[in-house]
C-alpha cells in the first residue's frame, strides 16, 4: 500500500507544478525528481548533500534556480526560489518513496522467511503430515549439523555391519523415527517432505504430468557442474539428445580396451607393492584413493583422450571443490549467500574458473580439428562435439525430417557437460568399486565365488582385455555390484520440487514443496526388502532387479541407484562396465581382506564415501 501512496504523492506535487511550468522546463524538473529520488533512496544519511550534488549534476544549481525562479510561483514554494527550495519541495514525496522501498523489501523478506513457510506448513499439517517445526531462516540446518556431528562422533560400525542409514543420513533417520516415514523437514524456509514409498518414488521420477522440477541448488550446483543432470525442460531434452549417441552401447564397447589398460596399470602397480612386502606378508593398500586414481585415469582417456597425469589438475580441483561445497551446503538457502565475498566462496569461484579455463582450451583445440576435417576421436568429448556439430548443421533430424534439436550447445554448455563427465564419471564408479572391495573383504565366501566365476569366464588371471560378451556372462559379479549399490548407494538422496499444486499418495501438495527421495533409506527398508534388508545377500538379485525385493513376483522394482524414468543416469551402462572390468581384473590377480587399521565409517561427502579410507591387505593370487 505504501508504494502506490508514495507515487500518488509525487504525482500530486508534479501536477501542482505542471500547471505553471512550460513543457521544456517541466522535463528538467522531472529529471530532477528522478535523480534526487535515487540519491535519497541510496544515500539517505546524506540527503541534503546528495540533493545538492544531483542538482549540480543535472543542470547545475544556477540552472535549477533559474528554472524554479521562472517556472514556479513564489506562493507555491512559500519564498523566493532557490536550490534549497527544490529540496523542500521534493523531500516529502521522496522520503515516502524511500519508506515505501524499505517497506516493500521488508514485506518480501517476511513473505519469504515467515508467511509463505507458515502457509505451506499449515497446508501439510492439515492433511496429517507431521515433522520438525519450522525455524525462521535456518530451518533444520542446526538440527542437521548436530545430528551429523553426533553420528560421526560415535564409534565406527563393526566390520560386517551394513546398517549405515543412521550414520549416513542422520536427519532422515531421526525424522522418520520421530514422525513416520512420510514426514516433513525444512531446507531453510522450504518444506521438504520425505517420500519413501517405492511406487510414489517412481511416480515422482517418471514425472508423466510435468508436476515436478529438479530441485537445484543455484550457484553451488553451477560451481560443481552444470550438465544435463541439472537442466530442465527443453534444454534438458536438447542436451540429452546430443549426449545420447556418445553413450550408445556400440560406442562404449569400443572403450573397453581403454578401461582394461587403466585397470592393468593399477594391477601392475599393486603387484609391485605386494612384491616389495617383507617375507611374503600381505601388503596394506588404501583402495579409496587408488580407485579415485583408476576412475580418474579412465575418464581422462575415454572422455578426453588424455592420461591421468594430464587430467590430474582437474581431479585435484574437483575434489577440493566438493569438500568446499559441503562447508556451505547448509547455507545455500539464504538468498545471495553464494555472492558474499567469503573465503570459501572466493576459493570456489577461483577453482571453477581454473577448471573451465582448462576445459575451454581442450574444447577449442578439438573444435578446430573438427572444422579442419580431421577424424573425430572415439572419446566422449569427440563424440559429443561431433553430435553437437550435426545439430548446428541440421543433420540431427527428428521424426518427419525436422531438426527437433533447436540448435546445438554453446561452448559454456559443453564445458558444463565436461565437468559433469569428470564429477560423475570419476566419483560414482570410484565409490562403487571401493565399497565393493570393502564388502568382499568382509564376506570372503562371496569374494571366492566371484573370483571363481571370473577365472572360469576369462581364464588365467584376466590380464587380457575382457570382452563385452564375457562381461555379460558375469552373473555373480553383477549380483555383487547390485547388492553393493543397494547397501551403499553412491548418491543417498534425490530431490524434486512441485512447481504447481498436485496430488501424490493422497496428499495434496502446494507449489513450492521439496520432495526428498532418500534412496539409501529406501534400499534398507525392511518393509520393502524383508527382515534381512541390512544384510549382504547378493542372491536376492539372482532373478533380476524386478524380483529382488521381498515382494518378489512381478512387482515393480524398488531399486533406484541410478534414478528412474526419463532422467535415469545416462552413464549407468558406462559405470557398470567400468566396475565389472575393474573388479574382474582385481579378483583375477589378488586375494584381499580387511586391514586391522580399517574403520567402517560411511559418510556422505556429496556421495557416500569411507570417512577414514578403505585399507585392505592384498596378497597375490597363486
UniProtKB/TrEMBL annotation:
Keyword Transmembrane set for record: yes
Cofactor (UniProt): heme
Keyword vocabulary terms for this entry: Heme, Iron, Membrane, Metal-binding, Monooxygenase, Oxidoreductase, Transmembrane, Transmembrane helix
GO CC annotation: membrane
InterPro entries cross-referenced by the UniProt entry: Cyt_P450 (IPR001128), Cyt_P450_CS (IPR017972), Cyt_P450_E_grp-I (IPR002401), Cyt_P450_sf (IPR036396), Cytochrome_P450_Monooxygen (IPR050665)
GO aspect biological process, one term: lipid metabolic process
Compartment(s): Membrane
GO molecular function per UniProt: heme binding; iron ion binding; monooxygenase activity; oxidoreductase activity, acting on paired donors, with incorporation or reduction of molecular oxygen
Residues the entry annotates as binding heme: 569
Keyword Membrane part of the UniProt annotation: yes
The family this protein is said to belong to: Belongs to the cytochrome P450 family.
Protein name: Cytochrome P450
Amino acid at each position: 500500500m505504501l508504494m502506490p501512496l508514495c507515487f500518488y504523492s509525487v504525482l500530486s506535487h508534479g501536477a501542482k507544478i505542471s500547471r505553471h511550468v512550460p513543457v521544456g522546463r517541466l522535463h528538467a524538473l522531472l529529471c530532477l525528481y528522478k535523480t534526487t529520488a535515487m540519491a535519497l533512496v541510496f544515500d539517505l544519511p546524506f540527503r541534503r548533500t546528495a540533493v545538492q550534488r544531483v542538482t549540480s549534476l543535472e543542470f547545475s544549481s544556477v540552472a535549477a534556480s533559474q528554472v524554479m525562479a521562472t517556472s514556479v510561483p513564489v506562493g507555491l514554494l512559500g519564498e523566493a526560489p532557490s536550490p534549497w527550495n527544490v529540496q523542500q519541495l521534493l523531500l516529502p514525496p521522496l522520503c515516502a518513496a524511500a519508506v515505501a522501498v524499505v517497506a516493500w523489501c521488508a514485506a518480501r523478506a517476511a513473505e519469504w522467511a515467515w508467511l509463505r513457510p507458515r502457509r505451506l506448513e499449515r497446508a501439510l499439517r492439515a492433511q496429517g503430515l507431521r515433522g520438525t517445526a519450522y525455524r525462521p531462516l535456518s530451518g533444520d540446518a542446526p538440527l542437521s549439523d548436530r545430528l551429523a556431528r553426533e553420528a560421526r562422533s560415535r564409534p565406527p560400525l563393526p566390520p560386517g555391519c551394513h546398517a549405515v542409514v543412521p550414520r549416513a543420513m542422520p536427519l532422515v533417520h531421526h525424522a522418520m523415527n520421530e514422525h513416520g516415514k512420510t514426514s516433513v523437514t525444512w531446507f531453510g524456509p522450504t518444506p521438504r517432505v520425505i517420500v519413501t514409498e517405492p511406487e510414489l518414488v517412481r511416480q515422482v521420477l517418471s514425472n508423466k504430468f510435468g508436476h515436478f522440477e529438479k530441485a537445484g541448488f543455484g550457484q553451488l550446483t553451477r560451481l560443481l557442474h552444470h550438465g544435463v543432470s541439472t537442466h530442465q525442460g527443453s534444454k534438458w531434452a536438447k542436451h540429452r539428445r546430443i549426449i545420447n549417441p556418445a553413450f550408445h552401447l556400440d560406442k562404449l564397447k569400443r572403450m573397453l580396451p581403454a578401461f582394461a589398460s587403466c585397470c592393468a596399470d593399477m594391477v601392475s602397480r599393486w603387484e609391485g607393492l605386494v612384491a616389495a612386502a617383507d617375507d611374503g606378508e600381505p601388503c596394506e593398500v588404501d583402495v579409496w584413493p587408488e580407485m579415485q586414481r583408476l576412475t580418474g585415469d579412465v575418464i581422462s582417456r575415454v572422455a578426453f583422450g588424455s592420461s591421468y597425469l594430464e587430467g590430474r589438475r582437474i581431479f585435484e580441483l574437483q575434489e577440493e571443490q566438493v569438500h568446499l561445497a559441503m562447508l556451505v551446503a547448509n547455507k545455500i538457502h539464504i538468498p545471495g549467500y553464494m555472492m558474499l565475498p567469503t573465503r570459501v566462496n572466493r576459493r570456489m569461484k577461483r577453482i571453477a574458473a581454473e577448471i573451465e579455463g582448462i576445459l575451454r582450451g581442450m574444447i577449442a583445440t578439438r573444435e578446430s580439428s573438427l572444422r579442419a576435417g580431421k577424424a573425430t576421436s572415439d572419446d566422449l568429448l569427440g563424440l559429443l562435439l561431433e553430435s553437437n556439430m550435426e545439430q548446428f548443421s541440421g543433420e540431427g533430424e527428428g521424426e518427419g525430417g525436422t531438426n527437433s534439436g533447436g540448435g546445438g550447445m554453446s561452448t559454456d554448455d559443453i564445458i558444463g557437460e565436461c565437468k559433469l563427465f569428470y564429477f560423475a564419471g570419476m566419483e560414482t564408479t570410484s565409490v562403487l568399486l571401493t565399497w565393493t572391495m570393502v564388502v568382499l573383504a568382509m564376506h570372503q565366501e562371496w569374494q571366492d565365488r566371484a573370483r571363481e566365476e571370473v577365472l572360469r569366464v576369462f581364464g588365467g588371471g584376466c590380464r587380457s582385455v575382457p570382452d563385452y560378451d564375457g562381461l555379460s556372462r558375469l552373473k555373480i559379479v553383477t549380483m555383487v555390484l547390485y547388492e553393493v549399490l543397494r547397501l551403499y548407494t553412491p548418491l543417498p538422496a534425490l530431490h524434486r520440487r512441485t512447481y504447481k499444486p498436485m496430488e501424490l499418495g493422497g496428499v495434496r501438495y502446494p507449489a513450492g514443496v521439496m520432495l526428498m527421495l532418500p534412496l539409501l533409506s529406501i534400499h534398507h527398508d525392511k518393509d520393502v526388502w524383508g527382515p534381512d534388508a541390512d544384510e549382504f545377500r547378493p542372491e536376492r538379485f539372482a532373478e533380476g532387479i524386478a524380483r529382488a525385493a521381498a515382494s518378489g513376483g512381478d512387482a515393480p522394482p524398488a531399486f533406484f541407484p541410478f534414478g528412474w524414468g526419463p532422467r535415469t543416469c545416462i552413464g549407468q551402462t558406462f559405470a557398470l562396465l567400468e566396475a565389472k572390468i575393474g573388479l574382474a581384473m582385481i579378483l583375477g590377480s589378488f586375494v584381499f581382506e580387511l586391514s586391522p587399521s580399517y574403520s567402517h565409517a560411511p559418510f556422505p561427502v556429496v556421495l557416500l564415501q569411507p570417512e577414514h579410507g578403505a585399507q585392505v591387505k592384498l596378497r597375490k593370487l597363486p
